[in-house]
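Thanks for the sequence, V.! I ran DUF1611 domain-containing protein right away. Repeating your input here for the record:
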Amino acid sequence: MDHLKRIVILADDEITPSPAKTLTGILRYRSDRVVAVVDNHNAGRDTGEAVGGGLGAGIPIVADIAAAMAFEPDSVLLGTEPTGGILPPSWRPLILEVIGRGLDVINGLHTMLGEDEEFSAAAERSGARIWDVRREPKERYTVELREDGKPVFEIRKHRPGSRTVLAVGTDCGIGKMTTMLEIEREALHRGLAPAFVATGQIGTMITGRGVSIDAIMVDYVAKIIEDEVCAAVEESDLVLVEGQGALNHPRGSGGPLFLMHGSRADSLIMCHDLSRPTIKLLPDHPLPSLERAIEMHAEGASWLWPKGRCPIVGISLITAGLPDDRAREEIAAIEAATGLPATDVVRYGAAPLLDAILAGPTA
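Predicted structure:
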């Protein structure tokens, strides 16, 4: 993605009433490359105003791809987040128009546009390229064999003195990627050289590298994450691994276990939304208390390491909707109750979390 400098985000029906995660993630961390947003419902508005929080301020919203061409884009990023990650049929004509204009397509859906005969034929005609971010990495499904034909099975160790940190949370979509990117930003500000390991499509689109674990055959998830993290550890003393899912989520519990065990994290950061009483879209499933969530992750870590080897060292909170004084009161109360530093990384920065990480365990 590094070669793409002038991106248009296709975001029809993805701004109001609540902006999509893909849209806000790209606007927060790659707005310097976005020249326009397409949404016919908000055409004529400023993105910062429509999305809120100033995200994308100064970026115009236009009605369609034809209007976006005035900003000389080189690519279009699909900002849609349909249930199941399947391409909505109504978007096919839009994507064909994009490809027909010779623009590259950045696709974070489970639908592989590059494997679609109509899309691939159109791309061949126009010279457009399709980046399917969630492409299954089949080339990495390999098993090393010994001379006797038996598989080589070993758990690689991290470089001594390095730190690997994993974000975990009480739900999906609860700030795990944002937390790690804000810790990375704070580390860079201090002159450190952190490495962010993206494990989902949005983080991969933001950084231009990574692997989406929900695109990997389950037998290989932990091994591929191990490879990604070990490569990062060789280059950096501080490796920040994006989390996925939640141990308490009925359909998202596998991700954090694969990541916890595959990354062999030295410490964890717990993410939680103060305004969310239940699992998103599952109102009959209340979120655990922070104390219970900490216990659950300590137990999960203990299955692979001695007790206390991979502790939660800090808490990242979403305090959106609370006035400043109330947010600070809630943070202070949680710090007192858990004995751990806490912050809202978007409102107040990630410094307390980085301090805790640097004071925590190493490999």
